[in-house]
Amino acid sequence: MSPKLHLHLPKELNHLPTDLEQNPSTTSSPSSPWPLEPIDLKRSKFPCCIVWTPLPVVSWLAPLIGHVGICCEDGTMLDFAGSNLVSVDNFAFGAVARYLPLDRKKCCFPTNMGTHSCTVSYRHSDYGMALSWDEVLNTSMRNFQHKFYNLFTCNCHSFVANCLNRLAYNGSVEWNVVNLGMFILWEGKWVDKMAVIRAFFPFILVIFVGVFVVGWPFLVGMMVFPVILIGWFVLGVYCFKGLIC
After folding, report:
1. Helical pair 217-238 and 193-213, crossing angle rounded to 10 deg
2. How far is Cα 235 from Cα 41, in angstroms, rounded to an integer?
3. φ and ψ at 189, to 5 degrees?
4. Alpha carbon 212 to chain centroid distance?
5. CA–CA separation, 107 vs 70, rounded Å?
6. Helix axes 133-144, 156-167, angle to 10 degrees
7. Beta strands 98-101 and 49-54: pairing type?
8. Exposed/middle/buried for 15, CB within 10 Å: 0-12, 13-18, 19+?
9. Number of Cβ atoms within 10 Å of the Cβ of 180
10. Chain Cα centroid distance, residue 67
11. At what angle do helices 177-187 and 156-167 cross, to 10 degrees?
């Protein structure tokens, strides 16, 4: 009789096929986002945040309307500041006054059409899929580096809304200049008390000077400007598709 041959395999190799059969998804499951550095107000670092600052002249007449940008995972700020120009860590129009932290777990980073975590996979794919937060922001930045800036049709809000749509943030690709503005208005946090003063003091000063020089009818004109401006964006977004990017 021929001798029997006994092979003794390491325990790791004996268990490997069984583990893969029981948990086939372990090799393809996306890794959870790495921890972010904390928000640093002194250094103006706001990782994965939307940032806001008053816009000269416009915010003097409508203090809730301002300039916005969005930050990378390391806190680097990106903002659409002019035609063919996306500023990097050089926030236009002054220091950050408000910020809105975003949750990366509410974003969709699919590796293919079958791994979308959002319910709008096909529409999300039209914007372009990405594997990370920074990759999405870089893609939007390259896109807006070839766009002309216009306060009324293609502005800083358009850039941030484009980023949120590419992220499918909160499961939506319907972000625009209107609902983004409302999002910042309701969820944004003030940096400090001086930021509040910086945002509203010019508005209050203009009212006092205007009433003193012109009289109470000046207040009517002050009310007309924000109504017309907001009305334009609402009509441009919801009634005339494609007018506002």
Report:
1. 120
2. 37
3. -115, 140
4. 41
5. 15
6. 140
7. antiparallel
8. exposed
9. 20
10. 13
11. 90
CB 77 within 8 A of CB 163: no
| Cβ–Cβ under 8 Å, residues 206 and 61 | yes
Pairwise CA distance, residues 25 & 4, whole Å: 38
**Nearest C-alpha neighbor of 145 from the set 219, 88, 85:** 85
The closest of 226, 83, 243, 68 to 152, measured between CA atoms, is: 243
- What lies within 8 Å, CB to CB, of 237 at 6+ separation is 176, 177, 178, 243, 244
Cα angle for residues 161, 164, 168 (degrees, 5° grid)? 135
CB 71 within 8 A of CB 48: yes
What does each of the 245 residues of the chain score in pLDDT, given as a tens digit? Answer: 444 444 444 444 344 333 333 333 333 334 567 788 999 999 999 999 999 999 999 999 999 999 999 999 999 999 999 999 999 999 999 999 999 999 999 998 877 666 666 767 767 777 777 789 999 999 999 999 999 999 999 999 999 999 999 999 998 889 999 999 999 999 999 999 999 999 999 999 999 999 999 888 888 888 898 999 999 999 999 998 889 98
Query: DSSP of 154-192, one letter per residue?
Result: B-HHHHHHHHHHHHTGGG-S---HHHHHHHHHHH-EES-
Strand partners, 204: none
